[in-house]
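Researcher: Please predict.
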Amino acid sequence: MRQLIVIGTLLLAAACGAPQSPPGTPAAESSQAVQLGGPPSGAGTSTADTGEIKPADPARFYKTPGYSPYAGRNYPERPYFGDEHVHTAWSVDAGGSGATLGPEEATRFARGEEVTSTSGQPVKLGQPLDWVAITDHSDMMGMITEIKDGNPEMMADPTLKRWRDMFNGGPVEAKKGVMELVAAQAGRKLPPAATDPRFAKSVWAKTTSIAEKYNEPGRFTAFIAYEWTSNAGGGDNLHRNIIYRDNKDRADQVLPYTTFQSENPEDLWKWMTEWEKTTGGKILAIPHNGNLSNGRMFALTTFSGDPLTKAWADARQRWEPLFEAIQMKGQSESHPSLSTTDDFAAYELWDRGNLTQTPKKPGMIAGEYAREALKNGLKVEQDLGTNPFKFGMAGGTDTHNGLVAAEEDNFFA
């Protein structure tokens, strides 16, 4: 079973040291050692060079009483480094822009193997990761390769055929094609062939098989995952990475949720509830890029603009225990207009509009950044009894070339 607690760009796993068994046979003779310094006084104090020392009450440390400060520890203390946000050529925007590495090459690279990049160069990490989550978009997952390869059934649609010509027409035309496709997805105007569930089923089975192949408990964890990519209202970023704790046998029982079904996060939470009931497994969602949501990521209303309810707050807290605060498309932790006394709040800003560059209006920024959400969550808890914005911080690359290569001397974007 995969164990997941993602914080920043690292994973923490609970320590599992059990008490050691006592020796099997006592010594045949009693020890001949003598005690130096006189017999114990029983006074409960001792004198040292620094003065009088009074032993502390062991109960204060919430651990098993004893001399060793490490005995009895039962909290996570070993970091595992990885990336919870990786796209490959199977994501429509990545593949459409020319990426060639698929989920298998991306996973091998994260494990420390050498692969050939989209540019044709050999590339390898300086230090292998401990885990990775390949999060290709669930919308049209893997279908971009069918379009680029000229699948006859898809080429019967004039829009898909035109996009294929753009994807294969060089970097400038490919970028135009990708932006046109993203706009069509955001406006829910994709051709019917692009949303055919027949393709989704076969691609998802391949995706989970790759994760299963490279998952090695104790050495490397390959999480089954995908990104649910809601561009609400024509480009407001409400994206979530969906991470599975379980293996292929459970993940394959239900197809990933797409925005073709709904772009409302509240519907995603309902789907997650039903998924766990159906499979007996565990999943969670990690939102990202509030900075591109035009005020909607941490809005103090529901998706439809209604007042928050306790049921809404309970659901968000239940399914979204983490927030991806930084990645390649800017940070969503702080903003200088909100953290006015923090000289460092203006780092890595991307705050002019949403994903389709619809400009922000006054007041939107307050609903986009984690620090403000943490404060607002406490206020909501006073009113509703639950804090919907009680989350830990995560970080990912959001790379779209299959390479988790964000090292300063080994950067592939």
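Model: The radius of gyration is 26 Å.
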